[in-house]
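[job 4417] fold queue: 2 targets
>>> target A
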Amino acid sequence: MPVSERTRRALKDFDLTEYEVKAYIGLVESGPMPASQLSTTAAIPYSKIYEILGNLERKGWVEIEQGRPSRYFPKPPRTALDSSRVRMENTLKSSQTDALSELQPIYEKKGVQERPDIWIVRGQNNILDRIRETLGRTRKELLVAMPIVPESVISMATPLLSLMISRGIKVSLMVPSVTGKDVIKRLKGLAEVRVREQMFGGGMISDSSEIIILLGEEPEKGLTLAISSDHEGLVKFGKIYFEFLWENSKPV
């Protein structure tokens, strides 16, 4: 069975060129062979085949067996992909460090961070992504009020909340009293939980510096609209409102 175009595109995401993809797949499909034979098998110009194989060897995708002629062996796909992924991650981390070391001081010097932003977030997937990002940035305290408790949010947040608890982050979670007992049982293992008879609106506040306000939810579409902000005044107001509701809620 020929290798699909989808797999070929995936290999390019690991920093392989078109010819490098053809060469590696040719070796995987046909087994070890000399460069001249691979040139014919993979339809790669002979003038380029040694350069391509050299690149693949350097990138950790093939090995060479010296001889007359030398033969080229494909490394196991799992090994090649893992080593490439690690190399790319290390490169990105190094690049991130280099970029931040120069750009962040300029950003802070210009005072750009003093301009608070408010984002309108539409669609459940985008809202869940923003929630996930906010949870990932939380370091000390997370306040959450959920007038409804969508399964999509619980499934996404459970592993992150477990990690936060293990790191000593305080999580306070407020839900309506009509929430099912099985859901509350799941949540109690992740946070301090309280219930209220009535809740108008919901959202979360992270470290007194970020707020997400959930504005819309539909049975078929799930979460539909939210506001995300680091505006100091809005975050402060949201926290005061949360604390008022929390003090008048029932522990479970």
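>>> target B
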Amino acid sequence: MAILSLDNLIVQLETILEPLKLAELFPLEQPLEVELGCGDASFLAEYARQNPAKNFIGVERLLGRIQKLDRKGRRLGLTNTRGVRIESAYFMQYLLRPHSAAAVHVYFPDPWPKKKHRHHRLINEQFPALARAALVPGGTVFLRTDDTDYFQQMNEVFDAAKEFEKVATPPALAEITTDFERDFNAQGIPTLRAAYRNLK
């Protein structure tokens, strides 16, 4: 169960042991997309503004960042956007209802570059199963990073998951950038993108 105030887009979780009741979070029943690690919400707020016929949940564990989602969303008058403050993997496994998301966006997750820390990476061998459980048939995972090693791992784990097929990122989606992405691109560091569609 969740409590939502009309003057606050952040979901106040009463329990983290039951899936969210999506019908209680949004005024309209529409296709749902989720961004894991929404940063300062610059991508999510703009994407939601451009797509009023979809609902969006931004997941972020840091309080300051999730508060930015609230401020930006309310400034834009978004009624189709909510924020949840919790770890992304936990959200996917326990709070998101099975087969409820049309898309999952994971942009510039912490690359954990040291070999001894790589088990902390969000996109690992277990992630495709989490994504498949969350997505509707035909739903898509969209990935972006600046880290070439992490990008290779992202592709390897999804290429090994036979329930997914690699697809192109739509140009209109690629044009909407994140805060990290703009910073990296300004330094001459390119964005590495991949997308995978759930076949079942």
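[job 4417] complete. Note on B: The longest helix spans residues 63-75.
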